[in-house]
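Chain A, query sequence.
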Amino acid sequence: QMQLVESGGGLVQAGGSLRLSCAASGRTFSSYAMGWFRQAPGKEREIVAAISRSGGRTRYADSVKGRFTISRDNAKNTVDLQMNSLKPEDTAVYFCAAAFYISLGVATTPDEYDYWGQGTQVTVSS
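Chain A, predicted structure.
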């Protein structure tokens, strides 16, 4: 089992920034591609950003490109999501997820992920 614990969520005004962090334990972190998803009330869970095992490849949802940055530190077993220029539509519960990956690519669909964190609330006020 891998345990994932998110932190860093909160309430911020539109235009502000937040940094989410996810701490992993229980498995070899570098064997897993990582991702951040979000789910707003009444909506399906959607990918926000994904990063490969080495960190060399990333992918972003069109809605966050240029505003969010995903990064990972395999020595510290953490993956972060820096969120800038936040908008009210970014309001959601944000989840960290891990996908056991043989390749060097990214995983972008929920079905590819094996472990999930409990989520952290991000609320952006207008």
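The mean pLDDT is 96. The CA atoms of residues 26 and 93 lie 24 Å apart.
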